[in-house]
Amino acid sequence: MSLFARAEPALSAAPGTGRVPTRERMVVGNWKMHGSLALCREMVPAMASVAQPDAALVLCPPAPYLGEVARLAANTDVQCCAQNVADAHSGALTGEWSAGMLADLGCRYAIVGHSERRRHYHETDHLIAAKAQACLEAGITPIVCVGESWVHHQTGQTEVVLQHQLGTLLALPEWHRLIIAYEPVWAIGTGVAARPDTVEAAHRYIRSRFATRDPVVGNNMTVLYGGSVNADNATQLFALPDVDGALVGSASLQSDALMQIYTAALRPGAATATSGAAHGARGDQATE
Ligand SMILES: O=C(CO)COP(=O)(O)O
């Protein structure tokens, strides 16, 4: 391939292994484009002091800080995750980085298809699937974000949107190795999470889509919720039977809040899920 040619997307390679995934408790802190070297140096040791092998504690700093977070997290139970990744393994793609480079750093995960990338960088379902495939080929587990807009939510089209977003992913050779994060766009950054019954229904639907390919995978895959998760609502969300953990945005920038959310994930049966119209300012969202 010419040095200046675009590298081939990785969508077509690698047959599946047929392995059953292990359902994992996880709290993933997505810093988005926030933070600093100082925050990396404060956050990683703080999180390492509470992280345990039975629930993954994953930090997603901006790309320039991945090396520092990976270095600080080495030999701890804190894991490192990228917020984005290229759909190719190498090539003349200025400004991109590959899943293999993340693996080189010791990162275990990459977020793929966040709604902010779908919206601001026009990422399509096909590109997102190619990025996920590139991750899988490099030994990185993609955390693929799906979720509907407020309009789709209000008009009862959540499942239609999810079916569409999941369709390309289910065509991947190693579809069974994906982690899915359900992030309703309308709950992100609002300070008010989706109501527990809304979250549970979406997670159950996601599992059902995977179960059409293999019921065991549908049951054993890891499905995270994201959208205004905080120390006050985490226990309620984590008590839902089909929620395995959270993809946390703004609360992940404060070590105290992230520690409390992580601690809630360690006690999955501690709280009883409640739902109903009493919760949420819009009647669609969880109590803060
Ligand atoms: O987008 C999110 C995580 O990826 C959620 O962000 P907030 O927790 O700030 O709503």
Assign the CATH architecture.
Answer: Alpha-Beta Barrel
What is the helical fraction, as a range of percent? 25-40%
How many domains is the backbone divided into? Answer: 1
Strand residues, percent: 5-15%
The CATH homologous superfamily is called Aldolase class I
Question: What structural class results from the helix and strand content?
Answer: alpha/beta
Strands of the biggest beta sheet: in what spatial order? 1-2-3-4-5-6-7-8
* Arithmetic mean of pLDDT: 89
Number of strand elements: 8
Low-confidence stretches: 1-17, 269-288
Distinct small molecules: 1,3-dihydroxyacetonephosphate
> Order of SSEs, N→C?
EHEHEHEHHEHHEHHEHEH
What's the CATH topology name? TIM Barrel
User: Helical element count?
Assistant: 11
How widely separated are the two ends?
A: 53 Å
Looking at how many chains there are and whether they match, the oligomeric state comes to single chain
Shape field? globular
Subunit structure: Homodimer.
Subcellular location: Cytoplasm
GO molecular function: isomerase activity
Family: Belongs to the triosephosphate isomerase family.
